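Design job #97: recover the sequence.
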């Protein structure tokens, strides 16, 4: 009886040993060929600021000169007398003056002569409790232009009108001097500064230069 049970015990023992061997070799870390996954920490990326591109056809900020009324339909002064000259007091149409100053003229223009400014004309547009409104313009020579530039304090160059131009602070108002060839014009508006208005008046004077 004992002899018959011996082979059976050997078979059972063999199966147990086989199961233990499989368990050992299949346990984690026991297989040298098994690839171990190493966790990878991806670097944190900081959010980038979003830059909005401006379309090429986007409207641009309105320039100060574009705030003035449209004066393209205004005709420059003409030589009424046929003597080849235009009176400086009539060089700029009254409609242009009223649009630039936003006020009607308070009296007749007054011609004058000044050795440093040239042949000129003064315009009165009245006053109120805060300011007086006036302008004066001149036909000047190239020498007078150069002298004014040489004596100017903190002159500001202007590149949009004439052959050469600059802004200057006169004794009573801001002045715009413009040279065209060997001749020049000067525009002053006071007592409140009005650079845009002077830029409108200057071309009319240039067209009327004798």
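Job complete. Output follows.
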């Amino acid at each position: 009886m004992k002899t018959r049970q011996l082979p059976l015990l050997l078979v059972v023992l063999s199966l147990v040993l086989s199961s233990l061997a499989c368990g050992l070799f299949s346990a984690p870390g026991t297989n040298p060929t098994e690839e171990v996954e190493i966790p990878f920490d991806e670097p944190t990326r900081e959010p980038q600021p979003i830059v909005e591109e401006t379309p090429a056809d986007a409207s641009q900020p309105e320039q100060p000169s574009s705030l003035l009324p449209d004066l393209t339909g205004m005709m420059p002064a003409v030589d009424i007398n046929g003597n080849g000259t235009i009176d400086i007091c009539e060089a700029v149409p009254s409609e242009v003056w009223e649009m630039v100053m936003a006020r009607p003229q308070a009296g007749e223009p007054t011609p004058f002569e000044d050795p440093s400014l040239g042949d000129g004309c003064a315009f009165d547009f009245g006053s109120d409790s805060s300011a007086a409104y006036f302008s004066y313009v001149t036909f000047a020579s190239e020498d007078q232009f150069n002298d004014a530039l040489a004596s100017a304090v903190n002159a500001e160059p202007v590149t949009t009108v004439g052959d050469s131009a600059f802004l200057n602070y006169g004794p009573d108002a801001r002045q715009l001097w413009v040279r065209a060839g060997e001749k020049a014009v000067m525009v002053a508006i006071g007592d409140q500064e009005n650079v845009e208005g002077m830029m409108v008046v200057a071309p009319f004077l240039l067209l009327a230069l004798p």
